[in-house]
Amino acid sequence: MTLRLDDIDRKILSELQADASQSLDVIAGKVGSSKTPVWNRIRKMREAGVIGAQTVIVDAEKLGFEACFFVLIRTSEHEAHWQEKFLATLKARPEVMEAHRLAGEIDYILKVRVRNARAYDEFYQALISEVKIFNVTALLSMEEIKFTTELPLT
């Protein structure tokens, strides 16, 4: 089911992306509507899957997760059984913040957040002990220049 979004829906989504803790009254005022229609639009977007789970963004470094690695993975295995095991392994590892299957020379890229290099090595050792991998390259992020979860809707 595809949900058609109009300008008001996009404004509501932009407001929710910026701060989902805003009250319906505040959002309604910002988008030029009233509370009930805004609530109905949000409900429809949730039902259609446009809006997923609402969470809180925490500061990883303030919680001691000071190292962010981008892990490039090449595999010589492309069978369904290997892929199922690999994906299950990634999903079970809380350090993996994002995982993407790629086109090109690299098969997968992971964003891994850990406390330090030693913690990354523990993650790496566990990963290669669970799944056969042809090549792993880890790139340490020296500085996060931009981070957002907001899509440019308006």
From TrEMBL:
Gene3D superfamilies tied to this protein: 3.30.70.920, Winged helix-like DNA-binding domain superfamily/Winged helix DNA-binding domain (1.10.10.10)
Keyword Nuclease: no
One Pfam family here: HTH_AsnC-type
Matches recorded under InterPro entries: AsnC-type_HTH_dom, Dimeric_a/b-barrel, Tscrpt_reg_AsnC-like, Tscrpt_reg_AsnC/Lrp_C, WH-like_DNA-bd_sf, WH_DNA-bd_sf
GO cellular component, one term: cytosol
GO molecular function: sequence-specific DNA binding
GO biological process, one term: response to amino acid
Alphabetic keyword roster: DNA-binding, Transcription, Transcription regulation
Protein name: Transcriptional Regulator, AsnC family protein
Annotated source species: Maritimibacter alkaliphilus HTCC2654
